[in-house]
Write a structure and sequence with these properties.
Length: 197
């Protein structure tokens, strides 16, 4: 079949199909962080003791990924698992938690803030090449940033909070060669439809 034999209906159908294909988002793989190991750190008032390490006595048992007993693994290096809350810290008057999801969610909570400062760090090779953004900022006293494979959060005096964040793949940008091929294909379709006689 040559382009000259294309009917009007065939041209319209071909152009519509081409438009759908080019307008469709790329077949980006769905992000899954399930199983990615995250190292968690929790420091109070500039101290050097990591209270996300259950050996320091501030992680509730039998509740979190960093608990000494099931569902925990007894360390501050926890694989992301749903619906498990990966990290917990229980002080005399405050509970802090960090819950990662396989789909890239992170929820940080604190029932209160009885300290002058808290620093939380989360590091994982699974974060390589990903982006970090705020979904719902639950308090002005929580500040988080992202660099390479690490999320760093500081908490200053203020209320308790629940804040949510998203860890996602960057949007794909079509390569110049792909765009050129698409443009040539469209030009060919248009030319073929105009030549029909």
């Amino acid at each position: 079949m040559t382009w000259r034999r294309l009917s009007g209906a065939t041209c319209v159908l071909a152009l519509a199909l081409f438009a759908v294909i080019t307008a469709s988002p790329g077949s980006a793989d769905a992000l899954s962080l399930l199983g990615a190991e995250v190292t968690g750190e929790f420091f109070v008032n500039g101290g050097a003791t990591n209270f996300f390490d259950p050996e320091n006595g501030k992680v509730p048992d039998f509740q979190y990924g960093n608990s000494l007993n099931t569902p925990g693994n007894g360390t501050n290096i926890v694989p992301i698992a749903d619906p498990l809350v990966e990290f917990g810290y229980q002080g005399a008057t405050a509970l802090f938690t960090a819950n990662f999801t396989g789909a890239g969610g992170l929820t940080l909570t604190a029932t209160s803030m009885p300290f002058m400062s808290v620093t939380m760090n989360f590091t994982s090779p699974g974060f390589t090449g990903l982006q970090f953004s705020t979904v719902a900022d639950g308090a002005s006293n929580l500040h988080c940033s992202f660099a390479s494979i690490s999320i760093g959060c500081t908490v200053t005096p203020g209320p308790g909070f629940t804040s949510t964040f998203n860890i996602s793949s960057p949007a794909r940008v079509p390569e110049p060669a792909s765009l050129t091929l698409l443009a040539l294909g469209l030009a060919g379709l248009i030319a073929g439809c105009r030549r029909r006689g």
